[in-house]
Design a protein that fits this description.
With 686 residues, the chain is mainly alpha-helical. It has 27 helices and seven strands. A three-stranded mixed β-sheet has the order 1-3-2. A two-stranded antiparallel ribbon has the order 4-5. The chain has a two-stranded antiparallel sheet with strand order 6-7. GO terms for molecular function: gamma-tubulin binding; microtubule minus-end binding.
Length: 686
């Protein structure tokens, strides 16, 4: 054992002992209590006394000094700072053998002094409940320690204790005192409190407990310190609330806003993301693997409470500190499943999540599109106007009139959905994001968009459904625009086809019908792929998983997976494909305008060369699209959805064969070979 710091000097000639600092005398752990015997007097050097008398005096004084009392021949010296190491003065004339044992025992007195001063200094309310609980544990330890010394005092009075025996009795306590001293040093240096203090104690138990006794001591102290923290944790996970007046818990809430503003923002999903935040430095190390579920458990209970439902359907259990992480894992998982399950039932039963999701599918994903033909008839002219020129109120009325004639008129949640015209084209935004510096993007920015390209649906998502849908609302809007443009082009081509086959100009019908049918089949193939090969399978898969879900989180993840997968396989995450696809749609639109031009219809017999150029351009663009599909298919590591798209568009190898013929012609003319989409197309037929 190392010796404690001391000063081998004779006692002062006289005067009262000056305490280095004052402590609160009512505390059990008070450091070096002043007693009548601590007043310094003139004493003869102790070395003049017989050795057995010296030992008896030192034994008596040691028993007092070890309990925080400065004595005659062993006395405390002033401290450099309130939490410095306590040093002692000692008569140099003391017998060497007796001095050896005194010096070996004084480190315990120094450590006791630091613990006592730490307890006294931490008695302020600002230290928090966790620190107070820890200090209570330290007081209990010192109380047991003093009881131990009291028993030794009784033995010394009857002559049954020697200084050597005292040394051997106290020696096993040294590791315990040193461990506490190390905890106190870190606590003071880093100003740890709350959850950080629990992390420190846990670390000391796991890494620095050298004996079973030390481990047990630190374990008991940690159990005591953890009680207020674990009480807050239990409250949070089972009641959605906690009382943390001193900011010690691992979760914090921002300052309360004005009540009316809070009530308004409560219905915003982002509000709940910011309403409660983890405080990383206050997360105890033994709870680190479970922080996300802990945070969400209380959040979900708060949401249920804000919806007007009771959440106190079970008593919050009393949690205790445990070195086994499985204990916390089981408790957290139980609370999380309960809270998430309760929120799921609220969404399904009280908030009618499933029929509202189906309403989203009807309007945003256009699986009930029987209202569109009437809407196109009513709003054909308005959809061609620049955004700044359209009467949005009139457009809304036209949309409502069209819905009233469709099967959607009986949908009880149709009031959630309203058409809107955005200030910018969401699909153009995808292009600009992918190539912000491109000249085409800059040109597109300067050109004002027409209503058709900015028309989409908006929805009034109320709390708590906003927690599921809000983050994906924009993706729904982009998907709607994507599908809506196809519907517009299909409608225009259908109108053109009808007028063509009913035309009295036989030359016009014979010349144009095949090309119109070719464009119409391309649009229908894309539509069938998006709806039949992408949206419907993913929707059916999501419905099955939602019905089997046990927690709100499963529903959230499945819905997110659904909308993300639809966006990816509808090419919305592939800007190059999307850009070329919309060039094809624009090409179909311009072809429609040309074929409807009276000059073309009246002189159809002489317009075959013009029609050949139109067909050539259309086929070239489709071939380019097929090549992009092939490249993207390879990059996505055999994404079979792309094979479905190719097979749907080029079901009879028409475009592939045309591309092969062009490639052979170019090779023969020496202009180089054009890459075809043989890999993609042949795979689709394998």
């Amino acid at each position: 054992m190392s010796s404690a710091s001391h000063s081998a000097m004779p006692p002062p000639a006289g005067g009262e002992f000056q305490r280095p600092f004052r402590v609160k005398s009512h505390l059990l752990s008070a450091d070096f209590l002043e007693t009548s015997s601590s007043a310094r007097k003139n004493f003869a050097p102790i070395g003049a006394l017989p050795v057995h008398v010296q030992e008896a005096i030192m034994l008596k004084e040691l028993l007092a000094v070890l309990q925080g009392q400065s004595k005659d021949y062993i006395y405390v010296l002033p401290l450099d700072n309130p939490m410095g190491t306590c040093t002692f003065g000692l008569d140099d004339s003391l017998d060497a053998a007796v001095k050896h044992y005194v010096l070996e025992l004084l480190p315990i007195a120094s450590l006791y002094s630091k613990i006592a001063r730490f307890i006294d200094g931490g008695d302020e309310n600002s230290c928090g409940m966790v620190m107070h609980a820890f200090l209570f544990g330290l007081r209990q330890f010192l109380r047991e320690y003093k009881r131990f010394l009291t028993d030794r005092e009784d033995a010394s009075r009857t002559g049954q204790l020697t200084i050597q025996q005292l040394y051997h009795h106290i020696l096993p306590l040294f590791d315990s005192f040193q461990s506490l001293d190390a905890v106190i040093d870190v606590s003071v240096a880093d100003s740890v409190r709350g959850g950080a203090l629990l992390s420190l104690l846990q670390d000391r138990i796991v890494r620095f407990a050298r004996t079973k006794e030390v481990e047990q001591l630190l374990l008991e102290l940690t159990k005591a310190a953890a009680k207020p923290f674990l009480h807050m944790l239990s409250q949070w996970m089972h009641e959605g609330t906690f009382e943390d007046p001193y900011g010690e818990f691992m979760i914090a809430t921002p300052k309360q806003r004005r009540p009316n503003e809070t009530a308004r923002r409560m219905h915003d999903a982002s509000y709940w993301e910011r309403r409660y935040k983890l405080v990383p430095e206050m997360v105890p190390s033994f709870l680190l693997p479970f922080t996300d579920k802990i945070l969400r458990s209380g959040k979900y209970l708060n949401i249920i409470h804000q919806c007007g439902h009771s959440i106190r359907d079970q008593e919050a259990p009393v949690l205790q500190f445990n070195l086994n992480s499985r204990y916390y894992e089981a408790e957290v998982e139980r609370a999380f499943l309960h809270a998430s399950g309760r929120l799921l039932h609220l969404m399904l039963d009280s908030e009618n999540l499933m029929p509202k999701l189906r309403t989203f599918k009807h309007f945003f994903l256009l699986d009930r599109d029987d209202f569109l033909p009437d809407f196109f008839v009513y709003a054909a002219d308005d959809l061609r106007l620049p955004v700044s020129a359209v009467d949005k109120g009139k457009l809304l009325e036209l949309f409502d009139d069209a819905v009233k004639t469709s099967v959607l008129n009986g949908n009880p949640y149709k009031g959630m959905m309203t058409p809107t015209v955005r200030g910018s084209d969401l699909l153009l935004l995808i292009h600009n994001t992918s190539e912000p510096g491109s000249s085409s993007s800059n040109s597109d920015r300067r050109k004002e968009s027409v209503v058709l390209n900015c028309f989409t649906m908006d929805c009034q998502i109320k709390f708590p459904l906003c927690l599921i849908i809000n983050d994906q609302a924009k993706q729904y809007q982009i998907l709607f625009q994507h599908l809506f443009r196809l519907k517009v082009v299909e409608w225009n081509l259908t109108q053109l086809w009808t007028s063509c086959v009913n035309s009295t100009n036989a030359a016009y019908t014979i010349l144009c019908s095949s090309f119109i049918h070719q464009m119409l089949e391309f649009i229908k193939s894309l539509q069938h792929y998006f709806s039949g090969e992408v949206i419907e399978p993913y929707w059916a898969q999501m419905m099955v998983k939602i019905r089997a879900a046990k927690t709100f989180d499963e529903v959230f993840e499945e819905h997110n997976e659904f909308i993300t997968s639809c966006s990816k396989d509808c090419m919305l995450t592939s800007p190059d494909i999307l850009r070329l696809m919309y060039k094809l749609l624009d090409n179909c639109g311009s072809n429609c305008s040309t074929l409807q031009d009276p000059r073309f219809t009246s002189h159809a017999a002489t317009m075959s060369a013009t029609l050949d150029v139109m067909q050539e351009n259309f086929a070239e663009r489709i071939a380019s699209l097929m090549r992009l599909f092939a490249d993207s298919h390879q990059n996505r590591e055999f994404d079979y959805k792309l094979l479905d798209a190719v097979q749907r568009i080029d079901y009879n190898d028409y475009y592939r064969n045309q591309q092969l013929e062009r490639s052979r012609s170019r090779e023969e003319s020496g202009s180089g070979s054009a890459r075809d989409f043989r890999i993609c197309s042949s795979s689709s037929h394998s």
